[in-house]
């Protein structure tokens, strides 16, 4: 069943018995709290709710289902189907006879709907019998609740329904349950009608006038039919006339086009079609019995030409009319279609459908209706998601620990959680990466802010994933600048290799992000430098793990003096990578702000790893580094214990070293000197106090465009 049914049942329990009763009922039935209108749910959920409701209220299923039937009618009216139901028939019998047609229409929106079927039979002794067919056993008690509510609300009459028998179904080939009700209809009385008349809305007055017209009307038929055979076949292009033996006499012109075998003389209807609805055997007796039902026929694939067998089979929907004088049946029908897509799948065009046939309008209207249903379904899902998020707010608060670990290294976060002070630590060698977006200033000037946010979010999400692939630490993002370090906060021998592979992955990932102005992939500039840094936590309200030192300055210069879509390496990073299976091209000597002349290089590719390995895609083994293999040899448990036991000692050692140097008269790094060789002992030349930070607000006088140096002012806060 669709969620519409279960939502109705939930609303009934809440209105009649309260929210607490529903909560208790759903827990007993082990079902969810809310249901999506256009989503399909197992029938077991509905049956389980009914069974538990019977136990809770200590009543029979007949009482519960009848109450549900009465409320279901009211719920349908409240849901916007009031006018549709009210105009279904002029009396109760016509209303019931057209229920199948209503279900057929609703199936355009609820494609998988498996609705029950109804048939009214008038016996020779004047009784009115209602035949109910369904695939679901045990739910027939809903029918009296619905029919009695309809009779009272729409037709001002009282109906009593009693079950005559439940015969074993033989005529129908699909529905498993067949229940025959005896309907006894009586008027509510003149007093009730007078009360409605005095109500002032004129509803009963209009009904009386309508009934008078219907009873006084007498149709007039012509003595002969003034229409040519050819005109009739063109006007009704999808009709079929067949006799008692199902031998086809003639058909409409368009049905011959899609089922060419019907042009043969003496062909039988059941050779080319099977019955979809009602689910009966295709013979004249069954057709006469269900003459008031809509018939849906489907073409048999094996009887079509080979050129048409690959298409979706054509379904016809229409009315059967028995012609007594000719002993023939005419099937007036049209293609059963839900959308323009189905029209194309069956090789049809709107021109194939007669202009007087409302199927043309129905297809176009339903195309819009399907889009509205999809939007409504999405809104329902969003509403449900918001409700779940609201309910689980307290649970989500516990995830702040994970968020803290994403902002700070794990051992630093643990120290802050314990209320300890985190002292700065020195790292003798690491590799730092900076990147920015080429012409970012121009993009910002030409785009809406939300477009910039989407572009950066798409790019940074890809970069963040790569930090996990290569186990490098993301330090900061400022605007379009992205800063990463390898070998910090946990020292790694392969820090340069990790950052280099990460840079190659960045370049690949950036090509998957489009420029909102041109629609082409964006380009980034990447710069790498290797050297010593000082690392520590800055701030208390929103603590950040920041890096300080001339290595940061030089890495920034490598990025700002770089070339679009290239990875710019300092000579020290080149020294760390030159024997590591990387293709590196020499750029030559360039003038670097604050550094003078430097020989720099471009990283081209990794000669050993594939693109999928660098990007961490698929099941193929991703990047494996030497230090990872060494850690695996010691085992994961030993690794964790070693990290936890030694990390505090390492931090204390770094801190004490820095404090001693701060008390001594050590030299500071000059902005004009190149970074020290990472292989040399640089302990005596690093000071936590005396770092000289160049003027990043000064423009670089080297002929580069302004966007190449725009990162300098943004990085002041980091440096």
UniProtKB/TrEMBL annotation:
Listed GO CC annotations: guanylate cyclase complex, soluble
This protein's UniProt keywords: cGMP biosynthesis, Coiled coil, Cytoplasm, GTP-binding, Lyase, Nucleotide-binding
The protein, known as: guanylate cyclase
EC number: 4.6.1.2
Main location: cytoplasm
Family, per entry: Belongs to the adenylyl cyclase class-4/guanylyl cyclase family.
Coiled-coil residue windows: 365-403
The Guanylate cyclase domain, residue ranges: 431-559
InterPro entries: A/G_cyclase, A/G_cyclase_CS, H-NOX_domain_sf, Heme_NO-bd, HNOB_dom_associated, HNOB_dom_associated_sf, NO_sig/Golgi_transp_ligand-bd, Nucleotide_cyclase
MF GO annotations: GTP binding; guanylate cyclase activity; heme binding
Source organism: Astyanax mexicanus
Biased composition (Low complexity): 664-683
């Amino acid at each position: 069943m669709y969620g519409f049914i279960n939502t109705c049942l939930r609303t009934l329990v809440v209105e009649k018995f309260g929210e607490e009763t529903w909560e208790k009922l759903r827990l007993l039935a082990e079902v969810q709290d809310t249901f999506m209108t256009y989503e399909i749910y197992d029938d077991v959920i509905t049956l389980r709710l009914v069974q538990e409701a019977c136990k809770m209220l200590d009543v029979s299923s007949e009482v519960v289902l009848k109450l549900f039937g009465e409320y279901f009618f009211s719920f349908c009216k409240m849901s916007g189907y009031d006018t549709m139901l009210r105009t279904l028939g002029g009396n109760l019998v016509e209303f019931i006879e057209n229920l199948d047609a209503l279900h057929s229409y609703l199936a355009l929106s609820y494609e998988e709907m498996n609705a029950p079927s109804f048939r009214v039979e008038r016996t020779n002794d004047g009784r009115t019998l209602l035949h109910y067919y369904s695939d679901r056993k045990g739910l027939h008690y809903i029918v009296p609740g619905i029919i009695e509510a309809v009779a009272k609300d729409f037709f001002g009459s009282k109906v009593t329904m009693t079950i005559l028998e439940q015969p074993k179904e033989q005529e129908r080939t699909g529905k498993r349950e067949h229940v025959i009700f005896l309907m006894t209809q009586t008027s509510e009385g003149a007093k009730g009608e007078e009360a409605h008349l005095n109500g002032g809305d004129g509803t009963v007055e209009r009904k009386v006038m309508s009934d008078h017209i219907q009873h006084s009307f007498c149709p007039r038929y012509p003595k002969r039919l003034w229409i040519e055979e050819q005109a009739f076949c063109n006007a009704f292009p999808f009709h079929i006339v067949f006799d008692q033996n199902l031998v086809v006499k003639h058909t409409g012109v368009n049905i011959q086009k899609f089922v060419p075998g019907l042009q043969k003389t003496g062909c039988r209807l059941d050779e080319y079609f099977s019955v979809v609805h009602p689910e009966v055997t295709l013979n004249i007796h069954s057709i006469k019995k269900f003459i008031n039902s809509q018939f849906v026929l489907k073409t048999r694939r094996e009887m079509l030409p080979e050129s048409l067998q690959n298409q979706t089979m054509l379904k016809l929907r229409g009315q059967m009319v028995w012609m007594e004088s000719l002993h023939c049946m005419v099937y007036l029908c049209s293609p059963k279609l839900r959308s323009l897509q189905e029209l194309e799948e069956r090789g049809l065009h709107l021109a194939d459908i007669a202009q007087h046939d409302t199927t043309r309008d129905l297809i176009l209207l339903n195309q819009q209706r399907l889009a509205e249903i999809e939007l409504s379904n999405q809104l329902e899902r969003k509403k449900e998601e918001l409700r779940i998020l609201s309910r689980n707010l307290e649970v989500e608060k516990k995830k702040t620990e994970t968020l803290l670990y994403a902002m700070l290294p794990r051992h630093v976060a643990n120290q802050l959680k314990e209320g300890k002070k985190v002292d700065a630590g020195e790292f003798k060698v690491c590799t730092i990466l900076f990147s920015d977006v080429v012409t970012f200033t121009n993009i910002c000037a030409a785009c809406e802010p939300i477009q910039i946010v989407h572009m950066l979010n798409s790019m940074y999400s890809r970069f963040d994933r790569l930090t996990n692939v290569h186990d490098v630490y993301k330090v900061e993002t400022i605007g379009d600048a992205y800063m990463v370090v390898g070998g910090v906060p946990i020292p790694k021998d392969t820090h340069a290799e990790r950052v280099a592979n990460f840079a190659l992955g960045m370049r690949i990932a950036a090509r998957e992000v489009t420029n909102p102005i041109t629609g082409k992939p964006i380009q980034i500039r990447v710069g790498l430098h290797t050297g010593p840094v000082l690392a520590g936590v800055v701030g208390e309200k929103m603590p950040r793990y920041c890096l300080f030192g001339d290595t940061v300055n030089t890495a920034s210069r490598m990025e700002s003096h770089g070339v679009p879509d290239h990875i710019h390496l300092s000579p020290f990073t080149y020294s760390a990578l030159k024997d590591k299976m990387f293709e590196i091209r020499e750029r030559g000597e360039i003038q670097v702000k604050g550094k003078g002349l430097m020989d720099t290089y471009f990283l081209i590719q990794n000669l050993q790893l594939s693109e999928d390995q660098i990007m961490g895609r698929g099941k193929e083994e991703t990047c494996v580094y030497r230090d990872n293999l060494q850690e695996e040899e010691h085992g994961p448990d030993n690794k964790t214990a070693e990290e936890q036991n030694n990390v505090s000692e390492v931090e204390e050692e770094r801190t004490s070293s820095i404090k001693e140097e701060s008390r001594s008269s050590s030299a500071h790094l000059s902005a004009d000197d190149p970074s020290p060789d990472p292989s040399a002992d640089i302990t005596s030349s690093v000071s936590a106090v005396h770092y000289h930070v160049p003027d990043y607000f000064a423009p670089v006088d080297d002929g580069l465009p302004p966007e190449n140096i725009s990162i300098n002012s943004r990085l002041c806060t980091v440096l």
